[in-house]
Amino acid sequence: MSETALSGLFHMPGISATAMATYQEGRQAASNQQHQDAIRYYTEALEFEGTPNAFKARTLEYRGLCYWLLGQFDQAEADYRQSLALSADSDQVARARVRLGEITDFRGDYAEASRIFRQALQEALAAENLLVIGRARRGLGIISRRQGNTEEAISHLTQGLVAFRQAGEVREQARVLTSLGRTRHARGEYQPALSAHQEALTIFQSVNDRWRVVQSLNDIGECHQALYDIENALHFHEKALALATEYNANLLKPEIQRNLGVDLVACGRYQDGLNYLQEALIGATAMNNHEQRALILYNIVRATLRQGQMDAAGGAAKDLDEVAEELDADRYRALASFARGELLFYQGEREAAVAELNQAMLAAQTSVDRGVLWKLHATMSHVVDNEDIANVHRTIAAEFIRQTAEPLQDPKLKSGFVYAPPVLAILHAAGIDPDKL
């Protein structure tokens, strides 16, 4: 006989105590990042006869999240869509829809993901569901960042953070801090990015969210990488990869492997670095993660060019073009044009290189971080024939470097950046004393 079972999520008759207990086992397994076990429990809970659709819809939502974290994206999407189909109340509709938006974003369909997030936001506002309001705002912020609109991204993310604070959702606050950190990074604002990632790390550690601890370590390392603090970047990325392997967090591995590849190339360990980049590319391709594919290919082009491997660089640049078109975002068009421009310069086609680098600059003005912009202008200063124009590019590159260096609070980190050989070369060429930054 069915009996009323109460939980923090379900206050309704028609859920047997056994079904609820199985569901709660799934929740506990998911909390412990034992996602395969959680899927088994959720599947068992769904098999109980006579349970209300509201129970099935919530269980499918949570099972879909576990599938997603395991990289089983088709199963995740199917569960989210089935949850939507079974949902009768606006609250659960909004919950399922925002999850569908997250997986659509992950796959790189930004226009469709944005549409889904906006619809979820409207539904959440109507239902006064702070949790989903925050998630939809975070999703819209992430989409805005990926498309290069960082001002809009910060606006959405800040509103999302307010919603989560009102709801008392500590873990979700940390997830927004991660997105804010990545947005600040995308603007070349590395000090606020580091602060956001460090705060997120502290929260994730306090709630024992091991997968997101790994993510935060990777993000902190990427900030150090951008500032040429390669020793610390390597430390964070090696630790992140070791923990990702220990926790079977395969979803996170391509991004970490990409960063390790960049670190090792920067250390002069080119072949080891390229091996990691190639492994990252295989993983990102298998997951159909277009954004990571683009970032990996961009770094493969730069690494192979510096080894004189023109065929490998050309192949990667061509693949990057295709991914950039799939993503349909200026940030990745800028990276693709930058890579093509460098390749043409190395091949001795100076005029064509200038045209490509100009295309990169047009796409990069509002969509690329200062860390890429100063490198782009520095490259252009070497490619153009006119010395006056070259000096203009050096001056612009030096200004982006100044904007990057001045906010840094750690004197050692700041000194390491301004005295990194590529940075120092631009400062000297522009007649700027690094000690005065």
Estimated structural class:
mainly alpha
- The rounded Rg comes to 23 Å
Biggest β-sheet description: 2 strands, antiparallel
Shape: elongated
**What's the tally of helices?**
22
Q: Strand fraction band?
A: under 5%
- How far is the first residue's CA from the last residue's CA? 75 Å
Could you explain the architecture of this structure?
With 437 residues, this protein is an all-alpha fold. The chain has a domain at 369-437. The protein contains 22 helices and two strands. Strands 1-2 form a two-stranded antiparallel ribbon. Helix 9 packs antiparallel against helix 10 and helix 17 packs antiparallel against helix 18. It is elongated. The N and C termini lie far apart (75 Å).
Short description:
With 437 residues, this protein is an all-alpha fold.
Keywords:
437 residues, mainly alpha, 1% strand
Topology:
Blueprint: E1 5-6, E2 11-12, H1 17-31, H2 35-46, H3 53-69, H4 73-86, H5 90-106, H6 110-127, H7 130-146, H8 150-167, H9 170-186, H10 190-206, H11 210-226, H12 230-246, H13 253-266, H14 270-286, H15 290-306, H16 310-327, H17 330-346, H18 350-364, H19 370-383, H20 387-405, H21 411-418, H22 421-429
Antiparallel strand pairs: 1-2
Helix pairs in contact: 1-2, 2-3, 3-4, 3-5, 4-5, 5-6, 5-7, 6-7, 7-8, 7-9, 8-9, 9-10, 9-11, 10-11, 11-12, 11-13, 12-13, 13-14, 13-15, 14-15, 15-16, 15-17, 16-17, 17-18, 17-19, 18-19, 19-20, 20-22
